[in-house]
Amino acid sequence: MTNELLKQLKEKYKALGENPETYLKGLLHAKPLNYWDYIEVDTLLDLQKPKTDFKDETVFIVYHQITELTLKLMIHELKQINAHEDFSSEQFFAEKLKRLIRYTDMLITSFEVMTEGLDYDDYNQFRLALAPASGFQSAQFRYLELMCTPVINLVNNEGKKRLTSSPELDEIFENIYWRDAGYNRKTGKTSYTLKAFEEKYLLSFKSLAKSTRGKTVWEQFLKFEDPSENLIFRMKDFDHQYNVKWSKTHLKTATKYLDKKGKTKKATGGSPWKKYLHPKHQQRSFFPNLWKKENILDWV
Ligand code: HEM
Q1: Can the peptide bond before residue 279 be classed as cis, meaning omega within 30 degrees of 0?
Q2: Ligand 1 centre and the CA of 68: distance in Å?
Q3: CATH code at 192?
Q4: Atom 43 (ligand 1): residue with closest C-alpha?
Q5: What is the signed CA dihedral for 182, 249, 209, 184, rounded to 10 degrees?
Q6: Residue 17: how many CB atoms within 10 A of its CB?
Q7: pLDDT at position 300, please?
Q8: How many CB atoms within 10 Å of residue 167?
């Protein structure tokens, strides 16, 4: 060990008001760290609890968990974008967008594990044991949206017609696009899946919408005086990959398993899924102002 390193270690503990010798002696006895402890492998591998004996249910659970972890990575980047304060250079922002696009690409390309990698008949049996749970109830999916764009952008054209001229947050959330999955405006009936989801998460969604006000990716982007073509391209690429390509891959999978031979099966979350899941119905875009003069993001 170099003297310089020893000196730095001593200074570190002295600054904490601690005796450096105690810690250095502790190091003598400490066991080396192992991969399995650091990565928490045992915990991770103990998190799959199938409800049936169908082998592919494990594939289904693990793949959902992989998606949740990928969303966690994306939210980790988004938190840093939301907190960013220096808009004199684009480098940080561009790098973060690149990461978000890379993770979205992972979500899209790996989705084949669902589209091709499940036995059709087995899936259609074990899924019945999961009702009324649904991927719809992924809170991270909604957190990510609220970190990317002002919540008003999550109201589709039909929803906007119902809004008063200057709606408060509660009114916006009552008309947010994803309520169409479980709230029937004609009958006033709310599905169990939606009710349970809102009971658990709605307050946290509203609180996030408040805390990210003025700091969403879109609003942060607007702080660049003269954004480069490259940055604009990355913003649009992320918007398109996440809100159109991934959504369409997911819809294609739902269609394969739930709409065979023209017969529409009821989804576990009970939504009118054929209509609801189509990007054209949701009209979700994080950065709609970037697409004004084009129709690339027209959700077809
Ligand atoms: C065989 C595979 C899958 C099928 C057939 C399927 C089907 C569906 C259906 C029908 C819905 C509409 C809600 C409902 O009524 O349940 C839905 C929503 C959703 N699913 Fe899946 N899904 C699959 C895999 C996944 C995976 C792996 C994820 C990853 C977490 C996921 C995430 C979501 C999300 C986030 C929603 C809400 C989408 C939105 O609001 O735009 N799904 N899914």
Answers
A1: no
A2: 12
A3: 1.20.58
A4: 135
A5: -10
A6: 6
A7: 67
A8: 17
**90, two tokens:** 């684009």
Separation of CA 133 and ligand 1 centre (Å): 10
pLDDT tens digits for range 199-241: 999 999 999 999 999 999 999 999 999 999 999 999 999 999 9
Domain presence at residue 104: yes
Closest residue by CA, ligand 1 atom 2? 114
Distance 162 CA to ligand 1 centre (A): 27
Query: What is the count of structural domains for the chain?
Result: 1
Residue located nearest, by CA, to atom 41 of ligand 1: 277
Residues 6+ apart with CB under 8 A from 193: 132, 133, 134, 136, 137, 181, 182, 268, 269, 270, 271
Tokens of 18: 């601690």
232 lies in which domain range?
52-291
Q: Which two tokens stand for residue 112?
A: 């084949």
Count of beta carbons in the 10 Å neighbourhood of residue 191: 18
